[in-house]
């Protein structure tokens, strides 16, 4: 399948580049994950919304809608959680909802069936089904179907990119430009390295399937505004992924966030005074 990011590295070197649990340390990672849960609970307490809505009849998966306004449709930020496609859920992933609500923006946080119960092809299908649901049913839930912004962290950054690329929208009856802007955080855009790291025990990819599921190797389609966020202290593989994909997209900015790592950078989405938080608000308002 030719050269790909890290194809010249040993298995040990690839693990160093992509094993962010190893880089951050288990204790620090667990502290950040606990913050995801606590800050999400605090963010949505008393917030107007529609939790637990089934968005995909095939899988039965659900999403939460937060931060709506009964008086007007709101632009919506759809956030796909990380966890290397095999961990986490929407319960830990709404920590930005209150901040966005205060800025006139609604938040949609979906679950997707985790690997290995679901294949990565199925997980991608579900991510696209989320976008289709927002476009078709957004109005009845306080969402503006013409102002959809998508973001996600790590594996969620990959899913974000799989909604950016072209060639899938027609199957869902959507226009190529249904996604108006994107913010992948620590995204994975050429996932062929996954075939040689520990994550593959869950997603079980070979090089051919990994290539078919790599946004960097798929048709670009309608380029929308994009901000590719990656923390300064991320794994080197994630840094390289964003640095390679951003020029390929030809319509986005690369933001390297100083002092942040793979796990804490995403929490900045809930801080309107942070560079990442301000940038997200400005991105949504621009569409």
UniProtKB/TrEMBL annotation:
Signal peptide: none annotated. The keyword Transcription does not apply. Residues 77-187 form the Alpha/beta hydrolase fold-3 domain. InterPro entries: AB_hydrolase_3 (IPR013094), AB_hydrolase_fold (IPR029058), GDXG_lipolytic_enzyme (IPR050300). Keywords: Hydrolase. The keyword Transferase does not apply. One of its GO terms (molecular function) is hydrolase activity. Gene3D superfamilies: alpha/beta hydrolase. This is Alpha/beta hydrolase. It comes from Actinomadura meridiana.
